[in-house]
Amino acid sequence: MNTEHYDDLIIGGGKAGKTLAPALVAAGRKTALVERSLKMIGGGCINIACIPTKTMVASAEVAHTVRHSATYGVNTSAPTVDLAAVIQRKRSVVESSRAINLHSLETALGHDLIIGTARFVAPKTIEVATAEGSIRHLTAERLFINTGTRPLIPSIPGLKEFGFLTSESIMELEQLPEHLIVLGSGYIGLEFAQMFRRFGSRVTVIGQRGQILSPQDPDIALAAQTFLERDGVEFLLNAKVLWVVREASPLENRAGHDTILQIQVPDREITLQGSHLLVAVGRAPTTDTLNLAVASVAMNGSGFIPVNDRLETNVPGIWALGDINGGPQYTHIALDDYRIIKANLLDGGNRSTSDRPIPSCLFIDPELAHVGLTEAEAQQQGYDIRVAKLDASAIPRARTLGQTDGLLKAIVDAKTARILGCSLLCHAAGEMLSTVQMVMQAQLPYTVLRDGVLVHPTMTEGLNLLFSKL
Length: 470
Prior knowledge:
The chain is built from 13 helices and 20 strands. By secondary structure, it is α/β, with parallel strands linked by helices.
């Protein structure tokens, strides 16, 4: 079989890969990008993660606002959620975004955008089983692996036999679950929990630890849990699922089957019954089909590909970008992976991952945005710290919006007055966080935010109040 030669090969078209490909082409590099499916053009964020989930979160927020409209002096009837229409809106947003990405890649790559499944057959040679049914062999001087992740499925007796939902399949439901059980109390589980509660489902979240959002400080996590409970989300923490079964629904007025979980909590075993089970306990790397051993590319025990701070694998000329390298699983981090590669390989730069901030946002209501160190992490690293906290109800804009739930928290180095970390649990937290992050990156003292002239009344003005607490 003929082998086709390229300068660069990209396996997977997620945020890093899809952005890198046109840049390589523009630099005169003969480049091919292999993506397994036309339905995944643009990567996981656009098709199965950030964009579809936030589109559905927006629908849930509208339902919640209508349900509480009388608070604002607007009287209306209780909303009826048409889940099929919500899903169709989500599909439309995804398809539009996918089309934009497909056009961009086809313009840059032409026939070198290859739809198919790739695996290594030699150190720098891949075999691609194309969507048309042909087999192609491609080789290149440099390869970039950007194949992303998929839902992690734990080993629980009965789980695979009796069925469950993932973060992907739940977004295709067209009938509202009567009682959704969510296994997992991290970002994915909590977003879906509040979303479906606001759509009208009963929701129970099962967490393995005693605290939701385990990387966060306890005060922030507890506040977030309190607000979710106020929405009607139920929690079972310090819980371990022992087994799962499904049986015919005992309710005469409802067809179908119920999921039954036997759960170990600290002092006893309990049985929990629901109509649907969502498994949201993390993400697993998509490396199992790549045949990396042939290329001598190392993986860790979880299947991720370790890289150095320049995103290089253990094999010269092979890089791993985005979620697959085991770093923070955020689209904005994958985009920065692209910037690092471009700077180092095309622009004569010397960038690394060692000094970049890791901002994040959990899109519940109120949002939880975070950057830098938590209080516990700062203490563990030996900093002499000062801590500021502010109730969101102190922010004038929050009061005008009726969005007074929340807690703002900042960690400052007492010696340098620089901000070490910040957690914002409040309305529009994701937008506010960027202001804090820019001050941190500029290595300015916290007084810049304490004394800054910020527009009134805005949520960002709350940073004046927060840092005045120090």
